Amino acid sequence: MIPSYPEFVPLSLELKADLHPYLSLTVDGVSEFTFSNLFLFRSRYQYTVSAAMNQTFIISGAYGGKKFFMTPCAAPRPDVLDALFETHDYWKGISDSVLSPVRTQLEQMNIHVTEDRDNFDYLYKRTELAALSGKKYHKKRNLVHAFINAYSYEQRLLTPETVAPAFAILAQWRQEKGAEGDYIATKEALEHLADLNMKGAVYFVNGEPAGFCLGESLAKGRMFAIHFEKGLESYKGIYQFMNQAFATALPRFFTYINREQDLGDEGLRQAKMTYRPSAFVRKYRGIKEH
After folding, report:
1. Same domain as 154, residue 217
2. In the sheet where 199-205 sits, what is the strand order?
3. Which of 8, 223, 234, 237 could pair covalently with 143 via S-S, beta carbons 3.0-4.6 A apart?
């Protein structure tokens, strides 16, 4: 049970029934605003949750010594916003649909809203990632063709029955990277695959587990968000191959693939831009000026 503001409780799997139906109706496609994503990163950001104005949920979190709050479904009342800014440093992940109805009101409240480019989600047309046609995808297409010519490969649905190879890939990926990265969140995603209703694929090369990707539907089924993608470096072109193969396998009703944000990492930004995003899911940050 999610308490009413100002009471908060830690975000747990038991809250899925309360949160998921409302989060799934959000239209913007913000990759953080799915129950799975919030749950899997609850420890990293110390997420707690409260309810205001019926089903306007408030997610409170902390990172880098700063406290923030998020409102996935709608902006809370002015008095609640004022109170939140008393205990938090900033308002994070404001989507276009949340911002538009209250933009003028926020200005009157001295809440300054700016674009948060580091957290924009990258959107790609599913058909373009599947086809990789044209000059702009020349290098990607060559890597995929080289992979296909070099290896024998197989794609299987990632299910509780086929999850063991994904665990093996994740362990080897962690060893190759020599860093944690999002290892804990990815491991929990695999452990709770059935509970979270996520979808994905696992890839075998020459009969051995080589890579997997995992994500879910959002924006009322218009987008599919790739939350986790892991491949072994010994197979050249594995990431480009998985990207193309998974886009091809996705149901046609998905218009866009959401490949999440770059978090301000310049190398990651360049890599995401090489796939020529067709749009972004814009997000904003709010700060109260006193």
Report:
1. yes
2. 153-157, 199-205, 208-218, 223-231, 256-258, 121-125, 279-281
3. 237
